[in-house]
Amino acid sequence: MDPFLTLLHSFSLSLSDAELTSMKFLCRDKIGKRKLESVKSGAELFNILIEQQQITRDKVSFLESMLENIKREDLVARLKQFVEEGEVTSPDDQPDPREKPIGVICDNVARNWKTLMRELDFPEVKLERVMAANPFNLREQFFQSLQEWQKSKGKDAKATDLIKALRRCNMNLVADKVEQ
After folding, report:
1. Superfamily of domain 98-179
2. Is the pLDDT reported for residue 91 higher than 50?
3. What mean pLDDT is reported for the chain?
4. Which of 33, 68, 163, 166 could bridge to 171 as Cys pair (CB 3.0-4.6 Å)?
């Protein structure tokens, strides 16, 4: 299945009737009134916008502005993730909330944080992006990198993986603290 259509389908399922009505209103200058009146779901609206080339896999600014206007920042974030990575994890793919040793690790790993991130197979490109976004805050760079790693792994982001990586980096004291 096309990941972009899958994303739009998930957006459609999460829209309330009021949000759909607002989005239809925002499309009035793009879609005729008669056609808009027949739209009963987000999928139908997205289909019309795709047919008219208002939104495509590579052209999402109109969709993004509509989602921002209806105050659906969660969907905007998923759309931006799709644009950056070409895929989106579903909301239920998020890490298990009990697996949150990030604070302990951030408090105890200092300058060697990049070594740990590389041991976790965190992409170098993402590492550089996080560093550029927080150039003067080492702890924030590390924190954001760990959060990105956790998001990318979803439910597979386990404390045990972090502990193993810490031990491989000879950060045994931190690994012991995380285990506690």
Report:
1. Death Domain, Fas (1.10.533.10)
2. no
3. 83
4. 166
